Structures are given as C-alpha cells and as structure tokens.
Amino acid sequence: MAVSVVNVLWQVFTRFIMGAPSSFTTELARFLLIWIGVLGAGYVVGQKDHLALELLPEQLEGRQAVRLELFIQACVVAFALAVMVWGGTRLVYVQLALGQTSPTLGVRLGLVYLVVPISGLLMTFYAALHLSNAWRGRGSDEATDAGEEKVLPID
Description:
By secondary structure, the chain is mainly alpha-helical.
C-alpha cells in the first residue's frame, strides 16, 4: 500500500510540478491496485468481513445456524478452489506461455495475474478454518470473542 501511495505521489509531482509525467507510474498503479484488491479479498474472507446477507443467519439458531455456516463456508471453499485457484492457475499459465508483457514496465502479465491463485489459496485456507470452527462449534462470533467454546450439535 505504501508503494502505491509513493507511486501516485510521484505521478502527481512529475505531472504537475515537473510538467513531464512519468511514463511508468500509471501502469504500476494499475498493477498494484490489482494485487491490493485481490489479496484484500483473501484477507476479508479470513476476517469474515466480506459482503453477506445477514437476514437468514440472524433468524436461525442452534443446529440450523451451524448447518448454514457449514454450507456457506463449503461454498466459499468450492468457489475459491474452482475459480480462483484452478482458473487463476490456468490464466497465469496461458499468460506466461504466450509471453505477454506490459508495454511500459515490461513485466510478464502472468506474474501480474499470479495474485489470483495466491488469493484463492488464502480464501481456501481461511474458509476451511471457518468450516472447521463451525464444525467444532466455534462458529459463533460471540463465543470466540469471549474466549469460550460454544458446542452446537449438528445432527
């Protein structure tokens, strides 16, 4: 994030003070934004702060709430593995095989897109951790915040 801020400040300085905009800063800012945004998605899954509709989970209690949490986290794992890891790995492979490079920086685009499977692995790890916690009855935020274990039967 700090690199992105310095990059944008350099762009503003060279454009408005020097009168000759730097040639690489726009492309670097774009690539950094891609990495920050996609890695941020993996982080947000870990924090359970992602976009969610909370109408149904708030209405459920006990086993039903646990089953819903298990279903949600299983869907996140399936999506992350299928789309982010598998699809992202294929995207990186194709881009590296084609040898495409960015016009200004000369960076291989496969390396730019490498963030997709990396973030997918992060999402998979965190969703599997949440799945395990829900299975063992630690899925409740209140229980984990208070430091106590809340055991909920799933049968």
